Amino acid sequence: MTEPGTVDLVHLEDADGNRCIVRVTGRYKPGVLPGHDTLRADVLVSASFVDARLETYVPQRHLDAWQRGLTGLVPGKDTRIGGDRGLKLILHMLEDRSLAVTVHDPDRLTTLLGIRPEENWVEEHHQRLEQVRQTWPSEVVETAPLTYAWSPDRQA
Predict the structure, then answer these.
(1) Which of 16, 58, 62, 108 is within CB 3.0–4.6 Å of 39 for a Cys-Cys bond?
(2) What's the pTM value of the predicted model, to 2 decimals?
(3) DSSP letter (8 states) at residue 68
(4) Nearest 5°: phi and psi at 2?
């Protein structure tokens, strides 16, 4: 169950008790142009050998990449949340449609979980992404490299 004011962008769990959740908790720097659209999130990972809660940040471009990755995910392929630095969550679909879930945080933890999600998990995660975007819409535009302005569509 999510807490008020939070949305699970990722919620994968199976009957064996393996679980990986990316819970968006709010904006990184609300009202500050460069950080306003970056979201704060907790990554919750649990299995018989691990129980961890890691903090991460999710910029809008990672949400876009996540959407593209979900759309093209088939056995033998993977999708991810995260970039070259900081925490990365990588989902690799196996031939039996189960997932190899890698959580890599260079400063704290690297682990691999096997999760057999519900059959309709991809569609559900597209809906989760839409809920995140509705809750925290993009309100900042980059007008030039490292130059930001409020979007004309901002609901301030």
Answers:
(1) 58
(2) 0.93
(3) H
(4) -85, 155
